[in-house]
Amino acid sequence: MSFVFSSFNIDTAVQEKSELTFGVDLSLLSAQPDCLHSGLGLDTEVECVSASYLASAVNAAGEGGFDAVVLSKDFLTRSDHKNATNTYDSIKTMERLYGSTSASLTAGISVDSASIDAVCQSFVVENEVRGCVEILADDLRNPQVCTCLEKLKNNGVKICVYAQEEDVERYGAATIVRYASTVRLRVADPHKARELRVALRLASEDEEKKVDVLCDFFTVVSADRRAANERVHFMEVLHGSEFLKNKHIVAGSVYDIADTIEEWVTAGACDGFVFYPASVSTDLASLIRGVLPLVKARGTL
């Protein structure tokens, strides 16, 4: 679902029309690796992803107004898969989901020759590109990745770089956007996000292309902000503090989430958002049935 909003052009000092893009990360539906249960000393059955449930969630996301669906490189279809980067579960899953949704499909990958070959085999069929890839900004440290990314680029596969605030400052905006068509940015402050977006946009102009900046929202939706924050606290108790580490949590009612979206867009912080619903059954449904329609109805975006 793309909404038109106004953004301020730093160079020409005129208002230009852009489209707001919404993506959703459904990596939460991954099978949980066996190593998470090893400390219990119990024999556990192999857990498999529910293909029908995943397909339903992906289809609902597309029909509900999301422009893109993402699965991280750590996504597992089976709990006994020791290493997602060797089984290419995100790539193979997105290949199977092709045609089931109107949303574009993005698979997280490790940048190595085997993964790139798997992407080209699965996503490029008879000159038709059927998916996008997401890489971590840290992968750009290795100069050998350039050859791999050039192969993707030459095959027409679009690349999203997932970066934290410090990544842009550490590696530089020019390095981040060199191969990217989109940057997924994890930052907690809209004004800092705007600063980084400006830097990334200026760097992309030097590359003679336009790179969209999407901000990451870990979303918890409840009846009100207090109830949402109680859910966040319960997640910390249930999963441990590491579960929420480095996540930008946006918690509250559908109105609170819509207010936050409006605040960030008005600040010029981004070109859209990637939502990571804390619960697919609860929060994805609330985003589709509550937040997105509310944002559209307000007409300010």
Distinctive features:
301 residues; disordered N terminus; alpha/beta; two-stranded antiparallel sheet; 8-stranded parallel beta barrel; TIM Barrel
How does this model look, in words?
With 301 residues, the chain is of the alpha/beta class. The protein has one domain (3-298): Alpha-Beta Barrel (TIM Barrel). The chain contains eleven helices and twelve strands. Strands 2-3-4-7-8-9-10-12 form an eight-stranded parallel beta barrel, surrounded by eight helices. Strands 5-6 form a two-stranded antiparallel sheet. Helix 4 (113-123) runs parallel beside helix 5 and helix 10 (254-266) crosses helix 11. It is globular and about 50 Å long. 41% of the residues are buried. The model is unreliable at 3-17 (pLDDT under 50).
